[in-house]
Each structure stands twice: as C-alpha cells, then as structure tokens.
Amino acid sequence: MLKKRNESISFAESCTGGRIVAAFTAIAGVSSVLNGSCVTYSNEIKHKWLDVTTKTLEKFGAVSSECVHEMLTGIQKKSNSDYAIAVSGIAGPDGGTEEKAVGTVYIGILCPDKTIVKRYHFKGDREAVQSAATKVAIMLLRENL
C-alpha cells in the first residue's frame, strides 16, 4: 500500500528489538518504502538518537505515551518518512511495576495527518509480548493507511 501511494515509513523500536523492521525487510522490494529504523533500548540512546527529552524520560519514563510520541517525532524528523511506528514497553520477565506491569507496551503511529499512541497489555512470556506488540504495530499501520 505504501508503494502504491509513493509513501515511506521508518521505525523506532525498543522492547520489540527490531522485530518490526525485520518483518518488513522480509518482503522483497521494501527498500522502495523503508527509509530506516533504529532500536533505541536505553534512555540515553532514545535521547541522543530520537531527541526524547530528559524531562519526558524523568517525569513519565520510557514506557509512556509521551515517550513514544517523542520517539515518533524523532524518527520521522531523522528519516524524513511519511509514516513512523514507535514501540516502548516491558517485555519481561523483569522490570514491571504495579503501575506498569510486565506486558505493558505503548505503540504509536505517526501518519501525515495524525498521530496515535495506544497503551496495550500483552500476556505471556517475553517472546509472546514481543510477538504480540509486533503484530499489533503492523495492524495499526494497516488500519491507518
């Protein structure tokens, strides 16, 4: 669909660790729409590479709608893409809190006319959380193309 519309996409991933871009690069000819991707696992790299503010990271944390919104804006600016997907969450098995349990994932999509960030809670082990987040991110893109 992106190719037909002559549009591009980029990704900023954290807890999915590059799974979303891997799903796209498995498709022959994706180079005509994929501008780039980065895995920004640490807060420092989210800040340095994607311009997520230290204020956002300190106040809301990396697993937040505010952080994912800034990740979307950052990757879109760096890559000059029409669409962007960003994901940050807690895949487990450790790292959860009462407020943000293991399986909490924020997924966002930046479109030419809107930005959407949603909070999800996926059940299962690390593999299940990463897999579910990847599938939902791609589905969110499809719904908004």
Characteristic terms for this protein:
globular; Maf protein; alpha/beta; 145 residues; single chain; five-stranded mixed sheet; 5 strands
Question: Could you give a short description of this structure?
Answer:
By secondary structure, this protein is α/β, with parallel strands linked by helices. The chain is built from 5 helices and 5 strands. It has one domain (9-143): Alpha-Beta Complex (Maf protein), CATH 3.90.950.20.
SS class: alpha/beta
Class in CATH?
Alpha Beta
Mean pLDDT value: 95
User: Beta-strand level of the residues, as a percent range?
Assistant: 15-25%
Q: Can you give the helix content as a percent range?
A: 25-40%
CATH homologous superfamily classification: CinA-like
| Count of discrete structural domains | 1
Radius of gyration: 14 Å
Low-confidence stretches: none
